[in-house]
């Protein structure tokens, strides 16, 4: 037997296993690349058949809405359509408002770009994308009707109708291909993630109750990681909504599920301070229904949430029972209340999980915790101002140089200036990656357009030529490698290829458009360097400072606030805190939320006029940043409430929670310190 025959039994099987593993890992990205190519080809075929004047926009829209997840693609398509319609309407309105005034026309265009950048920063997920696209659509329509030095030519309405038709055609084409070839897994994946998160939070909290005592380990790092996972559910919820009309109609239940996770962790945080004696924790743990204790696996184990609707009902029943628990001390009352709060948050998560698994799900109570709030205007205003200056700079360059491709440069300057601005510290890096992706796209369009297409005469051959580029690029996009690079590789290929029914091979025009792209992107990158977004640390400090300001305002006038309004304000701040921020920042925001909640509860409990005056003195001290004085006043109020017996335990529990928060976080409450 020869040497290679002897080695075959030892190396052949592992090689086949490695090959099978590589195929298994590479098949989904390649399959998405085929979907991307098919979507673009279908959009271009229909645009050619309808003899649209710029079929490339149909192909570009199909490429842009294609995402590796079906729900994300459909959701992005709807919002792209919305942004396109709004942008087209604004383009017509601007043209009508300044038919003969070039200066006013261009200034209003820049202001509209700034307004869209502001909205893109304030909104989240695909709604932010729609806001940015509204500005880009307006810029595209405007660039098609302007001359060499600017000034509308009166064709805005027909251009708007044509561009909207092309974009909607591309979105519909991508939706048909993706829906026909992908069953969608966002809903199932979100359900799995939520089930694991519920089991981890519930199991961790139950374990903490069971191990209460002096040797209880510090759970703060675990809770902070759980908080990060809860906030990360937001984009996953958006994707799941995109796959299902039923989920879209009950989206408030899913938003309440996210808010429930924050509530549960807030209750766990406050309860952890009480878990110092097994005597207090044991009867509270006994209030857990057996089904819940069985379902809540220990953190990291496989969750066993087979009937979330039933577990939701049992969690709510347990929370109501704990609300009536016959506590014997303020500490025990506070532990029971915070355990009830944790169970209530878990119940909201279980209700959302039941909806994801096909059950009807109960309607959420109110909208306070998930209604729209502006956490901080500062980053949005900075991004808006930068977008305005970027567009004005591109316009000025165009007018001064009388460059025929200057209108195109405005579009390419607006794209990174608006779409990457919400990324804070990563905005400049994202713009650089986007430029690199554009280099690949321009190179690919040159190869396909000037080397492959001239030798082809049929649409199937044309489609294969596009697939040579789009399939591997789609695989790169699906793999998650350098998303901004992949975005540039996908978004700019079809516009530079400029496919038409009768292909025109204009090398000079191609090069001029490429120069316009690089000049426009260069202006945007320079703007990010000269006027960078607020650093993450600065954003975190502002969110903490604004929350402290609101907390002091609540302490000064609690009658002006409701619990739902306060919860909505602080949840928005918690969600807006950048992922790169220090974990302590999110913990401080949760403390501020819980402190405000307890102040409102105590204010509602104290009805006696004399004790209201004592409470007012304590709250005035909190409003003035004097936590030590506030703790002393609250201690005096607590001593006065002792005479009321069990009837005052609720108020005394709130006093205990407030006093401990003020003592443990005095540096933040008094001076706004975040460390």
From TrEMBL:
<feature type="transmembrane region" description="Helical">
    <location>
        <begin position="514"/>
        <end position="532"/>
    </location>
</feature>
<feature type="transmembrane region" description="Helical">
    <location>
        <begin position="78"/>
        <end position="98"/>
    </location>
</feature>
<protein>
    <submittedName>
        <fullName>FUSC family protein</fullName>
    </submittedName>
</protein>
<dbReference type="Pfam" id="PF04632">
    <property type="entry name" value="FUSC"/>
</dbReference>
<feature type="transmembrane region" description="Helical">
    <location>
        <begin position="459"/>
        <end position="478"/>
    </location>
</feature>
<feature type="transmembrane region" description="Helical">
    <location>
        <begin position="30"/>
        <end position="50"/>
    </location>
</feature>
<dbReference type="InterPro" id="IPR006726">
    <property type="entry name" value="PHBA_efflux_AaeB/fusaric-R"/>
</dbReference>
<keyword id="KW-0472">Membrane</keyword>
<feature type="transmembrane region" description="Helical">
    <location>
        <begin position="434"/>
        <end position="453"/>
    </location>
</feature>
<keyword id="KW-1003">Cell membrane</keyword>
<feature type="transmembrane region" description="Helical">
    <location>
        <begin position="104"/>
        <end position="123"/>
    </location>
</feature>
<feature type="transmembrane region" description="Helical">
    <location>
        <begin position="406"/>
        <end position="422"/>
    </location>
</feature>
<keyword id="KW-0813">Transport</keyword>
<keyword id="KW-1133">Transmembrane helix</keyword>
<keyword id="KW-0812">Transmembrane</keyword>
């Amino acid at each position: 037997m020869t040497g290679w025959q002897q080695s075959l039994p030892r190396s052949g099987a592992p090689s086949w296993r490695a090959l099978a593993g590589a195929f298994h890992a590479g098949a989904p990205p390649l399959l998405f690349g085929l979907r991307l190519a098919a979507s673009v080809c279908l959009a271009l075929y229909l645009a050619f058949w309808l003899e649209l004047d710029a079929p490339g926009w149909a192909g570009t829209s199909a490429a842009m809405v294609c995402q590796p997840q079906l729900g994300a693609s459909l959701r992005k398509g709807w919002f792209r359509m919305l942004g396109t319609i709004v942008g087209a309407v604004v383009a017509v309105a601007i043209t009508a408002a300044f038919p003969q005034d070039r200066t006013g026309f261009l200034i209003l265009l820049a202001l509209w770009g700034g307004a869209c950048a502001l909205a893109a920063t304030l909104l989240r997920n695909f709604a932010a994308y729609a806001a940015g696209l509204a500005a880009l659509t307006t810029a595209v329509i405007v660039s098609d009707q302007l001359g060499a030095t600017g000034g509308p030519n009166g064709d805005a309405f027909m251009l708007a109708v044509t561009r909207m038709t092309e974009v909607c055609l591309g979105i519909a084409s991508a939706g048909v291909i993706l829906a026909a070839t992908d069953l969608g897994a966002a809903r199932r994946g979100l359900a799995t993630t939520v089930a694991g998160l519920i089991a981890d939070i519930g199991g961790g909290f139950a374990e903490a109750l069971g191990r209460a005592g002096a040797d209880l380990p510090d759970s703060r790092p675990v809770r902070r990681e759980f908080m990060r996972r809860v906030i990360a559910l937001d984009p996953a919820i958006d994707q799941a909504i995109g796959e299902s009309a039923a989920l879209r109609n009950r989206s408030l239940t899913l938003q309440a599920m996210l808010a429930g996770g924050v509530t549960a962790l807030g209750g766990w945080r406050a309860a952890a301070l009480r878990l110092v004696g097994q005597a207090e924790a044991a009867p509270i743990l006994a209030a857990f229904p057996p089904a819940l204790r069985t379902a809540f696996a220990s953190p990291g184990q496989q969750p066993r949430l087979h009937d979330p609707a039933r577990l939701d009902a049992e969690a709510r029943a347990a929370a109501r029972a704990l609300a009536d628990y016959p506590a014997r001390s303020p500490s025990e009352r506070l532990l029971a209340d915070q355990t009830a709060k944790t169970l209530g948050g878990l119940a909201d998560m279980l209700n959302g999980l039941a909806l994801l698994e096909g059950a009807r799900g109960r309607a959420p109570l109110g909208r306070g915790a998930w209604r729209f709030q502006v956490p901080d205007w500062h980053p949005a205003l900075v991004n808006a101002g930068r977008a305005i200056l970027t567009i004005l700079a591109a316009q000025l360059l165009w007018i001064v140089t009388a460059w025929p491709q200057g209108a195109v440069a405005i579009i390419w300057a607006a794209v990174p200036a608006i779409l990457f601005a919400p990324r804070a510290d990563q905005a400049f890096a994202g713009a650089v990656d986007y430029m690199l992706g554009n280099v690949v796209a321009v190179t690919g369009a040159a190869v396909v357009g000037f080397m492959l297409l001239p030798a082809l005469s049929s649409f199937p051959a044309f489609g294969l030529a596009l697939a040579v580029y789009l399939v591997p690029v789609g695989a790169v996009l699906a793999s998650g490698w350098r998303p901004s690079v992949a975005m540039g590789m996908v978004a700019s290929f079809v516009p530079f290829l400029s496919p038409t029914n009768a292909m025109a091979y204009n090398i000079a025009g191609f090069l001029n458009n490429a120069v316009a792209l690089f000049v426009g992107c260069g202006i945007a990158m320079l703007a990010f360097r000269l006027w960078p977004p607020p650093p993450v640390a600065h954003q975190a400090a502002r969110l903490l400072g604004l929350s402290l300001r609101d907390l002091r305002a609540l302490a000064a006038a609690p009658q002006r606030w409701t619990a739902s309004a306060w919860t909505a304000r602080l949840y928005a701040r918690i969600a807006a805190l950048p992922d790169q921020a220090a974990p302590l920042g999110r913990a401080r925001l949760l403390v501020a939320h819980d402190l405000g909640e307890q102040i409102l509860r105590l204010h509602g409990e104290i009805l006696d006029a004399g004790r209201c005056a004592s409470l007012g003195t304590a709250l005035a001290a909190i409003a003035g940043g004097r936590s030590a004085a506030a703790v002393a006043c609250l201690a005096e109020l607590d001593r006065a409430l002792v005479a009321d017996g069990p009837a005052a335990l609720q108020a005394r529990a709130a006093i205990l929670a407030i006093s401990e928060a003020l003592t443990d976080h005095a540096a933040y409450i008094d001076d706004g310190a975040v460390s």
